[in-house]
């Protein structure tokens, strides 16, 4: 998610008009492919994002119109939409366990009783976080870790409860939901015990129960690897877990799959271990070199990770043999749709060591055919020739299309993308404009929809804020 690397591009966003006019991002590629599978409306037995394929049939064509400036100076939305601030960092947690932690990041929505929604929210806290995740007995991994997750319950548009879900972890960036209704939270760090004051090794995935804290075990899923995790997606057919590695400097990150010993075994089954492998595209050491949407690689390979725990050498530095391994800069969002997994490269820059420049890619991998395809390329922008910003968290919208969290310089937005490759603004963060702080830290994160598709939940990273957005989602 967020890094403190210097941004070489600054730009303004022009948000007048509709469709892609001034939206700041241009797309090319087979966008239809993204909506051929599941929509974001959940089945009764699964989390949001694993729903019926028919939900995608009503994909939007022109968005919801221009953004309307919020007189309160918090969140600009299209006409007819409303927001509620559910939670803000520094305010008391409803549980009384301390203040709401800083740096709200990845998030997922799960169905509750009587129409309620359970949210699990990451907190990407490093050692300098103002508000740590409180260390709660029985769910704290490392007392010196300031990150973790909080669990929220929303009913009738109101926050009903809010508590610590797991604590003592570090730099909890994104993650993803499982078909058995748990959340896998990912640490985006490789710090070992004794580094930065930590008492235990970090860089792992942890499983969190969104409903009951007593069912969360604060133990890392070590077989899934120790690296700078970003996000995961689970194949609901066989339980394979796909993982992205967010590395912005060389050697760049890898795209992984984890083959569990107890696939689809329910909560806790991933602790039984499994095999971690990394994607190898023959003769393609860097995915940034692939420029044309629609490019397909048949029968790609998977290489066993030599040392998943990275005891001496980070995985991306390890020796994968004479055939090498395939890297990519800033691998971030990851989600499952239809019969394939999608993953995002947020950007690539030759001056930082990539083979080519781009402003964002979306890739798809079909496990049964072992086929990898470049689906979408982001940028350059329609905004007076300036580059489009980096895509980060992405989710499928309930009536088809994508919602994309922007992570770049300047004003920060949630953008929508339709089947016709039309880009439209869905939200703009105004609370960070004119404050004198770096607008980058006002990025959006964790966009997700309620299981009934009527509410979009999204975070602002700093100051950590969770919003619920309602309105005429049917008006597409």
TrEMBL record:
Pfam family, one: PhoX
Species name: Actinomadura yumaensis
Signal sequence region: none
Parts forming coiled coils: none
Superkingdom of this protein's organism: Bacteria
Name listed for the protein in its UniProt record: Alkaline phosphatase PhoX
InterPro entries listed in its UniProt record: PhoX, TAT_signal
């Amino acid at each position: 998610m967020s890094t403190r690397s210097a941004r070489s591009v600054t730009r303004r966003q022009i948000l007048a008009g509709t469709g892609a006019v001034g939206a700041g991002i241009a797309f090319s590629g087979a966008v239809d492919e993204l909506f051929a599978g599941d929509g974001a409306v959940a089945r009764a037995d699964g989390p949001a994002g694993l729903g019926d394929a028919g939900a995608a049939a009503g994909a939007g064509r022109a968005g919801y119109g221009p953004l309307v400036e919020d007189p309160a100076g918090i969140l600009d939305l299209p006409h007819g939409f409303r927001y509620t601030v559910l939670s803000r960092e520094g305010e008391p947690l409803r549980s009384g366990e301390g203040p709401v932690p800083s740096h709200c990041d990845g998030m997922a929505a799960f169905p509750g009783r009587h129409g309620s929604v359970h949210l699990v929210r990451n907190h990407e806290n490093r050692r300098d976080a103002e508000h740590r995740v409180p260390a709660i007995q029985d769910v704290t991994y490392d007392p010196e870790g300031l990150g973790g997750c909080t669990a929220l319950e929303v009913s009738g548009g109101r926050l009903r409860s809010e508590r610590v879900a797991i604590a003592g972890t570090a730099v909890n960036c994104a993650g993803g939901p499982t078909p058995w209704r748990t959340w896998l939270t990912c640490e985006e760090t490789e710090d070992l015990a004794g580094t930065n004051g930590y008492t235990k090794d970090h860089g792992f995935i942890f499983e969190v129960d969104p409903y009951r804290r007593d069912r969360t075990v604060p133990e890392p899923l070590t077989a899934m690897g120790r690296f700078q995790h970003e996000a995961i997606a689970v194949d609901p057919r066989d339980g394979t877990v796909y993982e992205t590695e967010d590395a912005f400097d060389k050697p760049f990150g890898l795209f992984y799959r984890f083959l569990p010993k107890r696939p689809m075994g329910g909560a806790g089954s991933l602790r039984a271990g499994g095999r971690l492998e990394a994607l190898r595209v023959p003769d393609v050491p860097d995915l940034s070199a692939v420029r044309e949407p629609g490019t397909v690689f048949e029968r790609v390979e998977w290489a066993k990770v030599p040392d998943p725990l990275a005891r001496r050498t980070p995985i991306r530095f390890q020796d994968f043999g004479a055939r090498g391994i395939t890297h990519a800069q800033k691998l971030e969002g990851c989600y499952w749709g239809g019969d394939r997994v999608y993953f995002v490269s947020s950007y690539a820059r030759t001056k930082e060591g990539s083979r080519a420049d781009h402003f964002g890619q979306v890739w798809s991998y079909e496990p049964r055919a072992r086929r990898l395809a470049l689906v979408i390329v982001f940028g350059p922008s329609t905004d007076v020739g300036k580059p489009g910003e980096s895509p980060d968290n992405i989710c499928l919208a309930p009536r088809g299309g994508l919602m994309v969290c922007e992570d770049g310089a300047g004003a920060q937005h949630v953008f929508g993308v339709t089947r016709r490759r039309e880009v439209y603004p869905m939200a703009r963060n105004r609370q960070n404009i004119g404050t004198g702080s770096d607008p980058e830290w006002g990025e959006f994160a964790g966009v997700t929809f309620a299981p009934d598709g009527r509410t979009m939940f999204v975070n602002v990273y700093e100051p950590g804020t969770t919003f619920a957005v309602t309105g005429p989602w049917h008006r597409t």
